[in-house]
Amino acid sequence: SALDFSCMGQLDAPAGKYGFLKACGGHFEFENRPGVPVRFWGANITSSACFPKTAELAAELAERLSRIGYNSVRIHHHDFGCVYRTGDPGRLNPDYIDRLDRFLHECIKRGLYITTDLYVSRDVKWWSLAVVVHPRCVVYNRAAVDIALDICLCLWGKMALGNICDCRVTKTTP
Questions:
Q1: Which residues face 134 on adjacent strands?
Q2: Beta bridge partners of 113
Q3: Is residue 134 classed as helix, strand or coil in its secondary structure?
Q4: Sign of the torsion formed by the C-alpha atoms of 60, 115, 123 and 172
Q5: Does 14 sit behind a cis peptide bond, omega within 30 degrees of 0 on the bond before it?
Q6: Which are the contacts of 83, defined by CB distance < 8 A and separation ≥ 6?
Q7: pTM > 0.85
Q8: 135-148 burial, b if ≥16 CB within 10 A, otherwise e?
Q9: Between the CA of residue 103 and those of 56, 90, 149, 160, what are the distances in Å?
Q10: What does the alpha-carbon distance between residue 138 and residue 141 come to, in Å, rounded to a whole number?
Q11: Helices of type H across the chain
Q12: Do the Cβ atoms of 111 and 71 come closer than 8 Å?
């Protein structure tokens, strides 16, 4: 179609085939493709859009993004769906993790690079992480911070390394 921009040279599937990205003299390039500058054009996929309900919908969304001419996707406000909404901020929801994983797989397969934030909208109350003891002094609850870090490591360890985690963090740090 006239609106198919996938042939503009931005996509070279699968994403990651040229190794790690590095900054070189004001531009980005891949470690296994030195001297070839790379630019990223992307979309911001947020909230429930990060979790297509079926494999077909995940493939369709990734295909549309690539045809628009994008070569990157920012996954944003996804962490609310990655954990159960039962007041336990340390327990991952495997159904939503699988949906997100399937969507990211479809994106990477088409040459779309992924970026995200580790903590955006998970329902963790600020007072469970920190206590303000003075207007200029905040004391962090180390156990709560450890839970937040463990969720990030478990979630992205599964995505990046293929680890299967049924994370329910109970670790406490003295």
A1: 137
A2: 72
A3: strand
A4: positive
A5: yes
A6: 89, 90, 91, 92, 93, 122, 123, 151
A7: no
A8: eeeeeeeeebeebb
A9: 10, 23, 23, 14
A10: 10
A11: 55-68, 79-82, 94-109, 126-129, 142-161
A12: yes
**Residues whose CB is less than 8 angstroms from the CB of residue 56 and which lie 6 or more positions away in sequence, other chains included:** none
* CB-neighbour burial class of residue 8 (10 A; exposed 0-12, middle 13-18, buried 19+): exposed
Place of tokens 């493709």: 33
Query: Are residues 112 and 70 in contact, defined by beta-carbon separation less than 8 angstroms?
Result: yes
Residues with pLDDT less than 50, the chain = 162-174
Cα 157–Cα 161–Cα 162 angle in degrees, nearest 5: 100
Q: Token pair for residue 89?
A: 């901020």
Among all chains, which residue has been given the structure tokens 């919908």? 57
How many distinct helices (H) and strands (E) make up the chain? Answer: 5, 7
Residue 36 to residue 31: CA distance in whole angstroms:
10
**Distance between CA atoms of 60 and 68, rounded to whole angstroms?**
12
Note the pLDDT tens digit of each residue in 109-131: 999 998 887 666 666 665 566 56
What does the block give as tokens for 139? Answer: 């004391």
